[in-house]
Automatic annotation (TrEMBL), chain B:
GO terms for biological process: transmembrane transport. The chain crosses the membrane at residues 69-97, 109-129, 141-161, 182-205, 257-276. InterPro entries: MetI-like, MetI-like_sf. This is ABC transporter permease. Residues 74-276 form the ABC transmembrane type-1 domain. Keywords: Cell membrane, Membrane, Transmembrane, Transmembrane helix, Transport. One of its GO terms (cellular component) is plasma membrane. It is found in: Cell membrane. The lineage of its organism: Bacteria, Bacillati, Bacillota, Bacilli, Bacillales. Its main location: membrane. The keyword 4Fe-4S does not apply. Belongs to the binding-protein-dependent transport system permease family. It is a multi-pass membrane protein. The keyword Transmembrane helix applies.
Amino acid sequence: MEDTNTVLQEQKPIVNLKKKKLPVNENKSNEPKRFESTVAHLKKYKMLYIISIPGILYFIIFKYIPLLGSIIAFKDYNIFQGIMESSWVGLKHFQALFENPDSLRIVSNTLLLSFYDMLLFPAPLILALLLNELRLVIYKKIIQTIIYMPHFLSWVIISGIFIGVLSPSTGIVNQFIQWLGSEPIYFMGSEVFIRPILVFSNVWQSIGWGTIIYLAALTGINPELYEAAKVDGANRWKQTLHITLPAILPTFSILFLLSIGNFLDLGFERVYTFLNPLNQQNGAILDTYIYEVGLQQAQYSFTTAIGILKSIVGLILIMIANFISKRLTGTSLY
Amino acid sequence: MYKQSLGERMFNVSNASFITLLSLTMLLPFLHIVAKSLSSSEAIANGEVLFWPVGFTLDNFQYILQDSSIWRAFGISVLITVGGTLLNLIATASLAYPASRPEFKAKKLILLMVLFTMIFSAPLIPSFLLIKSLGMIDTLWALVLPGLISAFNFFIMRTFFMNIPSTIIDAARVDGLGEMGILFRIVLPLSKPTLATLGIFYGVAHWNSYQNALYFINDPRLYPLQVKLRQMIVTDELSASQGADAYAMMFSSPEGIQMATIVFATLPILLLYPFLQKYFVKGSMLGSVKE
């Protein structure tokens, strides 16, 4: 959701900029002293350029150098030789990925979880529609305050809460199960439950917060539309179907497109904090695997190859989704 | 007033009950955790605790408040949150300000540079190797510098700066104020609400951050609160899987202590929550809705 704002914002200024600049450039093209004016410009605004240097350095050092460092995926990285001196090995590590017995399990875990997340993607939209139908304003405010709260908690705390609530001996869920007369279930210690727990905890954390953007879009709908529909005899369901839904469809499709670009980015903390040796089998995803094999077992080149493949898949997915969305709904990211 | 039909009334009731139920699934786990943190170890072990403390005791909190390593982790987290957020804001503003001025010729280049990092992010290992070669492993810099400027927050701030009328800035230039002076004495004071919003974005992220410390910090004395908390939870989880009875027999229930630590780590966020919510909601809608 965070990315959406940026993209929506990003487009406006660029358009403005072009509109404003064009006439100015045409006037200036007659001027012969272009070089001198550049020097004068730099002199006049030199502080502007100096101020921007630390920020530019940050992006180069912390974002672009590691990006270049990704070439270790095509080398056999050796701590003593460093990135430059290590020997090239071509696509060896990419091949190893396909031969690795763990790969299939990790990739299918990642894909399955991503797929479940995507199925639940409309959940905040539906909740926003339901909230919108609540007639008591104070009640709506109270509910909103409660459902936004999980968004502010760290995944360590959220997983701690889930572990506590699902605890086999003392957790409230198992107290309920025992009260029904069944045996307690050790949810966190089982491969069967880890995926539902991961999917549910994510919805639990983000559903309330996700409604904000839809609720904002809902307030932007012209109330006259509803009044006209009422006069024509449309009930609330018809109003929702023919006014509300079409009005927030563009917001929904932009958010959906962005989420497809992050399809394989489930989030490290969100999954890692729920894993333990008993549920690893079905819970481990690419990011946690990269951490465990890459950082803890120092297989640097191999796991960088995984990271690169992940980025490429994300890019291809977002391009496909953008193309389809452009054709079907006319909404697109670029 | 027009009369509600029976169907409509039924919808209203079931809708309200559904939403109430949903918000209870978010509220009740909290109450359960708080209740456990205030309950005696016997009551927890017997599974008597629901949403109200049984055998009320402050032992769990007393235990964690006596543990100096928890206070230490708390201090590190506060330091990272306050210091880190300040650095974040200064760095973001000092890049967003030039990028918001039409006179700045490198603007497009900077925007592209930032946007590109939103699409392509470096894999974990090269980033780790960079931090290592910079000698920042086991220093607090590793928790602050890698996320110094968030591309998302940069764009929000830049959009806000662009809306400051350039006549104000030109007038300041005529009056002889340098660019630094304009930034610190005119632009930033005018952007206080935006700074507050972005400060909260950065601050909450610092307070909740876990993975950077996991990657870059090995020295237990430098663990932030989230890592410390995670350790306590994992130890407890393992002992639970080995046999719930063994640890239930212990004098002080690890689970009560673990729950008390969760409450302890959540408390600052909960206390600030009304304030956070106001600014967060504002921030998440900055520029997101076209008027």
